[in-house]
Write a structure and sequence with these properties.
The protein has 283 residues and is an alpha/beta fold. 42% of the residues lie in helices and 20% in strands. It has eleven helices and eleven strands. The longest helix has 16 residues, at 20-35.
């Protein structure tokens, strides 16, 4: 099939499922992935005959898109904070809001007078948070933990891909009574979506991304924040800082929880969509 005809076929196949702009994004990303064509190449080579083996790859991707599988899982990678990351169904796809959290942490770390900043990321998933930070904060040593060994396999690959050294540890934070050392910065983007909020989640997320990393019970939605704040309080260096990504509907409750843990300074910050999304707490 020639490229211009395939473009029409691609759009017609997905038109009932996705907005036009999203279909365009899917098409051009897949064409770049499998044919190494940029957008301008698609225009200049509209009569290009797609090789059979490449056509099969495109058709397989198209069928997976029909099932509302995220494109990032289909091609096995994404970009976060300007860096490449492998992703699969064992890890969440990094979100733009989390990039804002990373930016905040990097700025605070660079303001610090600490010579060698020790950082802990709890529930690291793909490793996108600690890897992005260590790429920007050169005077840092980073440990990252996750309960999922499959997620840690991906995080290790991402550290190698981005040429950084991170100490990855398999650990269930809810069943941990103490950490291995004290840290200058502790970070977590833990599961925080309540079961009652599932109706707000798109099918491509609900049917594909790991529920272990997404959901908490309605009757104890701050279980991870409670545990991590307690651990952080006892494993901080003198000027330690705790950063959380949070449920947008539970900003007030999360602040109150941190106050009960004895944190004196708490900053609640909105994301680019105007939702309460991240917190910095310190004494």
């Amino acid at each position: 099939m020639i490229l211009k005809n395939y473009k029409n076929h691609f759009h017609q196949t997905l038109v009932e499922l996705y907005p036009q702009t999203e279909i365009d994004t899917f098409f051009f990303l897949l064409i770049e992935e499998y044919l190494d064509f940029k957008r301008i190449d698609v225009i200049l080579n509209s009569d290009f005959e797609i090789p059979k083996e490449k056509f099969k790859l495109l058709e397989t991707a198209l069928k997976r898109l029909q099932k509302e599988e995220p494109l990032q899982y289909i091609i096995g990678k994404t970009e976060f904070y300007g860096f490449p990351f492998f992703v699969n169904k064992n890890v969440l796809i990094p979100r733009p809001e989390t990039e804002e959290l990373v930016e905040w942490i990097i700025n605070k770390a660079k303001e610090s007078k600490t010579q060698n900043i020790s950082i802990l990321d709890i529930g690291t998933g793909s490793g996108c948070i600690p890897i992005s930070i260590i790429k920007q904060v050169k005077n840092s040593s980073v440990t990252a933990i996750d309960v999922s060994k499959e997620a840690l396999n991906i995080a290790n690959k991402n550290a190698q891909l981005n040429e950084v050294n991170i100490n990855f540890i398999a650990l269930d934070i809810l069943n941990t009574s103490q950490l291995d050392q004290k840290y200058d910065i502790i970070i977590s983007n833990p599961p925080y979506v309540r079961e009652l909020e599932k109706k707000e989640i798109n099918n491509n997320v609900l049917q594909n991304e790991p529920h272990l990393a997404l959901f908490v019970e309605d009757d104890d939605p701050l279980i991870f924040y409670d545990k991590i704040a307690e651990l952080a309080k006892n494993h901080f260096t003198k000027n330690g800082m705790l950063f959380f990504e949070i449920n947008q509907y539970l900003g007030k409750e999360t602040v109150e929880l941190l106050e009960t843990k004895g944190f004196k300074n708490i900053e609640l910050k909105k994301d680019l969509f105007g939702n309460d999304r991240m917190i910095l707490a310190y004494n």
